[in-house]
């Protein structure tokens, strides 16, 4: 039962239904990729999983290691081990990175024993992610470039050590070096007790973080699931190629 | 924009606790021990009685009487906070609790010692204060100057002592930066002033440790009129901290102070205030500094308490190369009006100024920024930057911004930006997604919001300020 | 389709009314001129009343370049109902003294106000421009941009107010005032104000005043332009964003009017940067 299980989920924004009958299972220890055209529900799924107040779930269930997430609010889900690497991380002026990381590290099941244990851990993570130590004195995400913000998300991933992580287009706008660092961070977490969903359009990140399965989300539900060959097909023939494969090409042609 | 979610509505309920817990934390009142006290109301007799009680020279007595006439003639301000309930005739203008001034902590009357112990003065002094002038019912009762300050020739005393012992300096500057006819409350203060610090720093002397003064108001319907005069002679440096707290009363109290500051050539002065007056207090203060050639003047102004505060620290850049900076935060909670800001006047070339103002209003409070930047004609290379940020935490509260910019030089650059917003949903969601509760996230965001000012205060004040904000935000009592 | 209406300010009999019916779209150009040019100073007032019904859209351009003998008292009132929008562009080069008061009320939900004004002034002209945007409806939006260029001993005062009523949640409002002072002796006063009575808003304003930027002057002069020409280029560049909002034929005339008011010598300058 371990892992993230999404069953028959229907959800949307205000009165608009975006996800309908969505089913997805990411077993413990695996990393899955989620791809799909823009506007079809990938970000909605990420927000629904984290519990964003603006999105509403009108049907279905979501469980992590057998426990339902739905009656938990955002911070409770985080404390249970759910993590979202944002596509556009918010800026929090006046709050330094180090102060923030120290605070959230204490939410772990195995928090750092004391300040120096935290600092040792932090130094290791900074070195691993090739982040300049002076970063920790800057205000969280305030004035950071896109790449710096993404690295900060991965730094938080390593600090929080969650059970399940969703990466919402973490690779967008990154250069080759930054991409390698992000992949290294994700791979470092890989193993029993951790699973993840990587949302992306491109194969670059997936070449570095080889997914155990690939899903295509189209028009609010999973249109196709398979292995890495789906990524290669996508790269060659686009989403049309996927539709032909699953026989949904005609369906899409009639849809608005 | 999306409708407010139920989750966020809950958090606004939790946060609505400004002003609560005040009585437990600071709202104690000691039995009244005043020995000399004038009758209620303000007359020539009151003013003369005050002057007599202080054994003042004739010139000061005449200055007071002239100021009284001006006070009676000048009109109330037609703008700013709501002062309609101020009753000048119902107040007592002077009370002197003990004879003379103590030099050591142990000599203080027991009651007063206990009051200050509760406020944490002895510890503070041990740690890093150079000297403490503690105010009790408008007299400097306690005074202690460290030896090395005396050796350096730094003068730090109550103003009455300075009037008697250093009349040449006092006469030269007193009332020149804020003349009695400046506004009605400056006139009032000029007539009935009592207490306040006098600081003179000789040429080239650096006072490393912040000079500080505590004072409390401890009588019903009592006005507090201290007057501070700080002069930094050429090339010197001093940091002065003003912080005060007062018990809660049922009748209205008035605090109408005047602070005059002169930073001579190449000198630097920083004046920091954290004000947390009780919620019935009218806090109407005129603070002004003149900065001469290459001098630097910095006002750090934190306004948390009072019923109505009207305070606009001003800097007159009089000499070439002078620089002015104002850092101001205001927190307006239930029933509070913080009407604060800054006034900068560029009268010389190569001058620059920066004003940063941050305000938070919640639970129906109103925070207003009122500022002025004036640049005279024919000047060269003058720059000014003003930034006002306001956070409104609920739909009951208000925020206003009233800046005035008057530029008459071409070789000048004036930039002003103001923003009003609520705590962003995106920020809250982001922090909560990392495990903080809504309340914790809001506290973190608000503390982050005021961090630029908190960073500039000495550690003890920074901690007190952070704690104050956290307590207000966390909704805990005591 | 652009309709141009010319109003002779010395023959005005009453307020000019511009109503826009629900869901109607209108485009209009208003020019203010003086019929009988006389040197005798006269105080002349004009009033403009704009009412845009629900779902209506109005695009309005106003040009006024009256001589110094005219003292201007101008009052503009704007009311926007729900889902309506007003895009208004005004170029005021009047040389006489004047007070110009504009009050816009965003009454209905989702109303949009897009206001751009360009003001040029020289000699001893003193003008006061006041613009108030009152938000009463929900989710309404206002963008106000006031740009000016002053020379000689001109004196311009800009008072701008964004007022958001306690019921006007979701308001998105921004006011900007940029004044370029071309020589010592001008005076630009800027008083942008915010009165916000509710929390669910994004409101801000920005104001900058100063002379042409040193680095920019240096750059242009290093390419061979004289200081005068360089300044002229920068001034035109400063106000150019407004010319883009005029219909093509009018844009050229507007640019020419600005350049003859503010730059030494008459006639249009070489292409603005």
Helix content of chain C: 10-25%
Tally of individual helices of chain B: 13
Percent of residues in beta strands of chain C: over 45%
- Multimer state: heterotrimer
User: Main β-sheet of chain B: number of strands, strand sense, barrel status?
Assistant: 12 strands, mixed
Mean pLDDT of chain C: 89
Q: Approximately how much helix is present in the residues of chain B? A: 25-40%
For the largest beta-sheet of chain C, the strand count, sense and barrel status come to:
8 strands, parallel
Report the β-strand fraction of chain B as a percent range.
Answer: 25-35%
Strand elements of chain B, count? 24
Main structural class of chain B: alpha/beta
User: Residue ranges of chain B: pLDDT <50 for 5 or more in a row?
Assistant: 1-35, 97-103, 118-145, 214-223, 244-252
Distance between the termini of chain B: 38 Å
The count of domains of chain B is 2
Tally of extended strands of chain C? 15
Shape of chain B: globular
End-to-end span of chain C in angstroms? 30 Å
Adjacency order of strands in the biggest sheet of chain C: 1-3-5-7-9-11-13-15
Tell the overall outline of chain C.
globular
Task: Tell me about this structure.
The complex is a heterotrimer of chains A (256), B (478) and C (273). By secondary structure, chain A is of the alpha/beta class. Chain A contains 9 helices and 10 strands. In chain A, the strands form 2 sheets. Chain A has a 6-stranded mixed β-sheet with strand order 6-7-8-3-9-10, with helices on both faces. A 4-stranded antiparallel β-sheet of chain A has the order 2-1-4-5. In chain A, strand 4 and strand 5 form a beta hairpin. Chain A starts with a strand and ends with a helix. Chain B is α/β, with parallel strands linked by helices. Chain B folds into 2 domains: 72 residues, no CATH class; 406 residues, no CATH class. Chain B contains 13 helices and 24 strands. In chain B, strands 5, 6, 8, 9, 11, 12, 14, 16, 17, 19, 21 and 23 form a 12-stranded mixed β-sheet that branches. Chain B has a 10-stranded mixed β-sheet with strand order 4-3-7-10-13-15-18-20-22-24, with helices on one face. In chain B, strands 1-2 form a two-stranded antiparallel ribbon. In chain B, helix 3 runs antiparallel to helix 4, helix 11 packs across helix 12 and helix 12 packs antiparallel against helix 13. In chain B, 57% of the residues are buried. Chain C is mainly beta and 273 residues long. Chain C has one domain. Chain C is 15% helix and 50% strand. Chain C contains 3 helices and 15 strands. In chain C, helix 1 crosses helix 2 and helix 2 runs antiparallel to helix 3. The longest helix of chain C has 17 residues. At the B-C interface, strand 23 and strand 24 of B face strand 13, strand 14 and strand 15 of C.
